[in-house]
Amino acid sequence: MNSIIRDLYEGNLYPSNQTGSTLRRFRKEWTQAGQSYDRLREKLNQEEKEVLEMFMDKYSEFVEMELEQSFSDGFMLGSRLMCEVFGRRETD
User: Fold this and answer.
1) Cβ–Cβ contacts within 10 Å for residue 83, how many?
2) Longest Cα separation, the chain
């Protein structure tokens, strides 16, 4: 088993690709959302489909930025927690 440091150096870590995908509930909800999207798209005319696609593209960009920020915030919180834990003396 490789260490996290080695995996990071070798480019084997892809946290952005792992978000939610391992949760059974997430996969179920994602599938249902995709099916709803397909049903909606079938009912639209060409102009409405183009508007929907523009919306989805922008929404995807937003979600990607939000996930990146959430990852960064969580990493920073974890780092501060570790600094506090390892910075304490037993008498504190």
Assistant:
1) 10
2) 70
Residue 67 in contact with residue 16, Cβ under 8 Å?
yes
Contacts of 76 (CB under 8 A, 6+ apart): none
First-to-final CA distance of the chain: 36
| pTM of structure | 0.64
What's the confidence (pLDDT) of residue 1? 55
Q: Is 87 exposed, middle or buried (0-12, 13-18, 19+ CB in 10 A)?
A: exposed
Q: What is the mean pLDDT of residues 24-36?
A: 89
Mention every residue, 6+ apart, whose C-beta is less than 8 A from residue 15.
71
Residue 49 near residue 42 (C-beta atoms within 8 A): no
Label residue 69 left, alpha or beta by phi (over 0 means left) and psi (-120 to 50 means alpha): alpha
Compute the radius of gyration of the chain from its Cα atoms: 20
